[in-house]
Amino acid sequence: MSAQPSGRGDIKGSMQIVLTGATGMIGRALSSHLVGHGHRVTAWVRDLERAHAELGPDVACVAIADAVGLDAAIAGADAVVHLAGAPIVGKRWTKARKRELIESRVATAQTIIASIQRRATPLPVLLSASAIGIYGDRGDELLEETAAAGTGFAAELCEQWEDAARAVGAAATRVVCARIGIVLGREGGALGPLARLARLGLAGPIAGGAQWLSWIHLDDAVRALAFMLTTPTVRGAVNVVGPAPVPQRAFAKALGRAYHRPAFAPAPGFAMRAMLGEAASVLLGSQRVVPAALDRAGFRFEFPALDGALEDLVGSHAIAIRRLRAAEAPTVPYLVERPARYVLVAHTVIDRPLAEVMPFFAAAENLALLTPSALRFDIQTPTPIAMAVGATIDYRIKLSGVPMRWRTVIEDWQPGTKFVDAQHRGPYRAWWHEHHFRADGDRTIMEDRVYYAPPLGPLGWIANRLFVEKQLRTIFAYRAQAIRLRFGAGEARRAVA
Fold first, then answer.
1. pLDDT beyond 80 at 89
2. Alpha-carbon radius of gyration of the chain
3. What is the CATH number of domain 319-495?
């Protein structure tokens, strides 16, 4: 294994990595990041069909029931990353729910550990997820990795989680327990429900807002996990949080600023307890956690400040959508028959040469990696798909939860320069998407131009204003972040068209 660490979390050298929890928000981003840096990833998954659709063609998948396949993958692995675990927030902690939370973490860890112990040689590194919930409710106490565990179910759950990983013993040369904080990403995680409230001006302080919130941008969380894989000095417990925890009321105000909304309508603690019971402790507890181990190891954060992180996640500054001017649309038969009314323009600068970038975008199977998982993108056309003029791609998606079929036809195909896909069946009256590529030394300039007409005929402008434009901004902003994670955090920079 020749991988070498760098402070930015970019792994150097090729590794064979087994990953659990690959279809979750962090796992999906991490798998794409690892593959984009030349590593081979095998995902241990419950649903093979869903995993293949969401993780792309470069990630091998083993079914959770395939013990032989798991042993074979781990036997040849340089590292195992265990992220699997049912979401801890969102449901009351009934006895049944607590059992599910424990089993989804501890039982899966025990299965992974047993497979590692059957290897012929020690595994170089086991990286197992944990959470800052291990510290319990600690008020204003500054918490480094040396702090003692706290009390309560969340703390006990995390202790069992970490104990299960450490039980690997001498079968792993190095064991890292990643104590992950509140991860902020464009979809899923803590930001999703809070963002919906923030848009309405309702994301006010919870229970007074004095409790500390230890957060991290998804990009930094992924880079930190990658950094841990290849930094030999990093072992034991590691706090995966940003360097600037904030009181919850300050987080609420920052979120309001990001959405240009007031942060009012506080949520009383008693209301949270009435709604969630014991599970409300996740929202009401105070954990002022700092990334001491990452700091000592030399890790560098791309998003150390909350305002900058939220601006990156909430904004869509690089995406311009406007009414189409007369005679501006391409003079092609498709747009003559189906006139477009709006145009979306987005630029992306990628610090990778065109020869590396183009094959990724030319593979239709990679479209799912650039699409929010909420859309449930699923290609129906048998793969691999030979890209050429006239190639037809059928897939299914969900828009606002409504299942839809979409048929795309490749109308133009100029490898290394441009290709065009057009919707021939789907929700839009017109959809003509031009992908332009241009080499700029060792970088690639990519431009998307989408000429479209919303549904609802003459009332399309209402649909565009109410939900279509917002949805397109969300999709293309997610796409930009996915590109950045794929080709390296901090390497893709967007500019307003």
1. no
2. 23
3. 3.30.530.20
